[in-house]
Amino acid sequence: MAAHLLLVILAVVAACAGAASAYQPGSAEGHTIAGRIKIDAASAKGFGLPAKTSNTKVILNGGQRVTFARPDGYFAFHNVPAGTHLIEVSSLGYLFSPVRVDISARNPGHIQAALTENRRVLNELVLEPLREEQYYETREPFSIMSLLKSPMGMMLGFMVIMVFVMPKMMENIDPEEIKQAQEQMRNSPVPSFSGLLARANS
Amino acid sequence: MAPPPPRRLLLLLLLIGFLAAASLATLAAAVYEDQVGLADWHQKYIGKVKQAVYHSQKSGRRRVVVLTEENVIASLDLRSGDIIWRHVIEKNDLVDQLNVVTLSSGGSILRAWNLPDGQMIWETNLQVSKASKPLLHVLSNNIVAKDNLVIVSSGRRIYAISSIDGAISWEKEFSLDGLEIKQVVQSPESDIIYAIGLAGSSKLNLYQLNVKTGEIVKHIQESFPSALCGETVLGSHNVLVALDETRSGLYLIEFKGESISYSKVHISDLVQGLSGTVKLLPLLSNGVIALQASSTVSLLKLKGTDGLEVIQSFEHPAVVSDALTITEKDEAFAVVQHAGSEIEFVVKFTSDVSNEFIREKINIDQHRGNIQKVFLNNYIRTDKSHGFRALVVMEDHSLLLVQQGAVVWSREDGLASIVDVTTSELPVEKDGVSVANVEHDLFEWLKGHMLKLKGTLMLASTDELAAIQAMRLKSSQKNKMTRDHNGFRKLIIVLTKAGKVIALHTGDGRIIWSNLLPSLRASKSGEMPSALRIYQWQVPHHRVMHENPSILIVGKSGADSAAPGVLSVLDSYSGEELNSLRLDHSVAQIIPLTLKDSSEHRLQLIVDSHSRGHLYPRSPDALNVFLHEMSNTYLYTVDIEKNVIRGHSLQKSCDNSDDEYCFSTKELWSIVFPSDTERIALSETRKMNEVVHTQAKIIADQDVMYKYLSKNLVFVATVSPKAAGEIGSAAPEEAWLVAYLIDAVTGRILHRVTHHGAQGPVVSENWVVYHYFNLQAHRFEMAVIEIYDQSRADNKDVMKLILGKHNLSAPITSYTRPEVMVKSQSYFFTYSVKAIAVTQTAKGITTKQLLIGTIGDQVLALDKRFVDPRRSVNPTQQEKEEGIIPLTDALPIIPTSYVTHSLQVEALRGIVSIPSKLESTTLVFTYGVDLFYTRLAPSRTYDSLTDEFSYALLLITIAALVAAIVFTWIWSEKKELSDKWR
Hints:
Chain A is α+β, with helices and mostly antiparallel strands. Chain A is built from 4 helices and 11 strands.
């Protein structure tokens, strides 16, 4: 259902060539890294955080520069020197892979991008989250099974088995043997449980 | 049917009881959503406000947009002071109204923000020269259709940007060399804007530009006989007031259509006894200007076009606000000054300055210091008269809204700039004080339990869930002001940049006390003291139990490194200043010693810039203790500029003073790094207060490894000069990082590792874990170094240990050449890291966790087992039993192990871990612009029941068991009886 409504339009544009140059007179060496962040709103669920781009930050080179995504998800860094750069996206509730961006000095305008986590090469700089992050442990809904699985439930269950199943098992044992065992028990000095309780009551 | 033998039943019961107890410990895992706020708290701050713009639309909440020194732009609710939205942007300069427009990065990035939710609408990159101060001006009336133009000027360049989409509608670069635009003024009627600039220092230029096209309509230039300092203020619509270079005279410059005429006024003729630097305060109109000297603020009025007269002078500290347009002709401004313990808030109109429209006295907490800024706002009362309110910024960076003679709300925004953190225990509970807040009402009690039951059965509505949460918070007793058994309740004492010391309760983060230290406040002579560190000064134990603990605050009285230090001692329970000391030497390094004197004062050694040590406290008792240990005290200094690490020992008494608390130092060793290949990036040592449980580590094959535990181990990281910059600036082949482990006593390098193609940042601990960027793989990496003592490796024979033929009790000395074994490993880590810390527990038994502050301002808890150099790809069965995790190339990021769960600590700077009395649990305090506190159990709470533990279920089980016992007893009795009758 997560319809990819907006297809990729803008990839990576060098500032010194193309339409953007009108905005940037005299920027001979600076390049522009422009891209888009795409978070599927339909798949966003969970802990009440809307999939809004307003709390999405884009970070260049570990904090050298920070920018924000526009409502449509576009972002840009201007005046970036040629070289290899790293772009990180910080958005609460999503895990983004950092992106390696190579801006070639010899070949102006030629920019390459690749995800560093899985080394996937990006044709366009469209960043999608690798996964959603659930910060909370989800609580199991209430069920009889979970109650029974708890230590106390197991205690009770075990006792029920002892009370009702054990006698059945005892029946299968040779009555002679039982008699013998009971004889032994009577002779032993350890007081029986029922006797103990009876004495306490009297 | 024979009954089960009763004795066996008893045994079984016992066994099951044991099993149950054992499995209880595994109940606690990560945080459930409904547990948020039980053990943790989060506070949002913005920092010291430097600009405020009011937005009072007809509909919706009234709000104010503020820009702060912590580079935060935030929208605050004017009624409550709550943050509606907030962004931390890079170094910013200016904000202007209408749409919220900010100019940042030295004027090169202009952004517009959506007022209701803080979404960025557009961003425009401007080409500006970094040296000049940029100006931002939003043209306020809609001459150009509905599109308002935003004018940005910087140097000799001027831009006009559409406020709708951020497109540059025109730009103009003036041809004049050295021109710097100082003011952009809009003509009220026509499509003309005036740009006033200075070329050189004495040539004034006035340009008239067409708003729509940016064409120069007219250009007038005028030279002045003496230079101008650049501060100009538009006095009225055609008179410009400028300060001259000596700051002793004012030029009144009048524009008359085609020409400029000027006259000069000496300030000393107007105001007597001015001292210090004179400043022109920006923008008061209707011919009123304000002049600020170090001791007074004077209001001056233009007399015609060639004279000025003083209307009123206010003694410092007084603050004047910007003018606020009330009617078309009239503007109001506020003057705030101190009067005893109160502040006086005076509102005047520029048309009639001698009269006061409002004079209110407002009582303000003494610990807020002087007023620093005031932002005036007006509102229309129900009777159509004008009312005024103002935001006041105080010396401790707090923000207050004053209205009708009272403080409506206040924000303690000094907490956004924490410098250092320490903790203090709370007072011991006195006898006779009732602790148990017994639920007196049985009905209430029953109702509470019914609600809880509903909650457990997932039948409760949202309201009821909230009620349960509130009840839990109330009953947890976490907010009491006394020490608790587990050591969870403490005071977190923080030192802020403003020199304010604030104590926060760990239960809910409320402020217990605060104190703005007089010794750290800016003095009249203009020196700016800075707060440095905070230490525990006296931690009373058995002998001096009746005394309150105290803390030591170390500061500097000036900005440069040779400025004398200031010390101040505060009571931890009340925040009162017990003692304040102005030192006669500077503070270069503070070494908290592990020694204590007889009154339980912690000894501190302060090293000054001449590398002399000074001992505090200055008492004969402390001196005796210290002299005893002096020969074993070594210190090292890291000189980043000279690229040298030096080790020193202490010698008795200084050379040329008879101060017996002063010690000279002798250089023992030094390591000089070749500055063309290595630059010191970072040095780190072990935390002095860290507790280590055992020296031995038993590994899988029943073998023992001995940890090399030396308090004198220093970790130093150097990077190649080219790699010292940002990530994109160096090629992999010219960047490397070298990590050293150095013994601080002898200067011996114990270990050295080179990471090619790597560059900082680095952080370290006991075993060293550091984080750096690998340029070849282009990913961040974390590396671990563990260091083991090989000389003790043959102490494995039990017989030897019994017979005493071991060397475990032999004294450890740094002078013998240590035989060490070093293991290291490195892993990929996804994020950039802002801070790393390690969990500290009371006895050091619990497994450690690394607390990693990520670039997304979250804190990730990573088990130390993931950064164990003994990890291998295929661990043997034995190693698996030991808990060694198979080696992976990257460290895992598990979302549920984020300590901060779904919160962010904006602009995270530091993580502090504080041991509690309970071995399993540590307290974690994270600070940046926000504060976050939580309780963490790295190996789960194995020594206590969790809050989640269901006592009701336990009771029910016990009751059921007892019932079963009684039932079986009756049954067996009956059986026996019938057997006997038979």
